[in-house]
Amino acid sequence: MPATVDGPDFVALQVKDVQAAAAFFEEHLGMRRAPQSPPGAVVFAGSPVPFAVREPLPGIDLDGDARPGLGVVLWLRAANAAQVHEQLLAAKVPDVTALQDSPFGPTFTFTGPEGYRLTVHGD
Hints:
By secondary structure, this protein is α/β, with parallel strands linked by helices. It is built from two helices and six strands; from the N terminus they run βαβββαββ. It has one domain: Roll (2,3-Dihydroxybiphenyl 1,2-Dioxygenase, domain 1).
């Protein structure tokens, strides 16, 4: 049976100024910070899906790059991220990164439809 992805589990916007962006979401939208955030990010206690603003990932130039989805990081949760990773490699999906450990479990990124970068994490 193939592994499946449950759907969006975490949404993060890559921004140039994390603190200014966090202040905007707090002050203008009433969002509340989660008790803990990883370095370089501010996570909000969104419901049903948590939301964050974060520093750009290495290699991202928010000033000069016009790739689709640039600045948006969509995380998808999977019960078995390693199995999904192997399936995508076998299907020759473009730009599948190595599976790595993260605070959110095994994680990898790949290029999805129309060039959007998607991240899968899970158990």
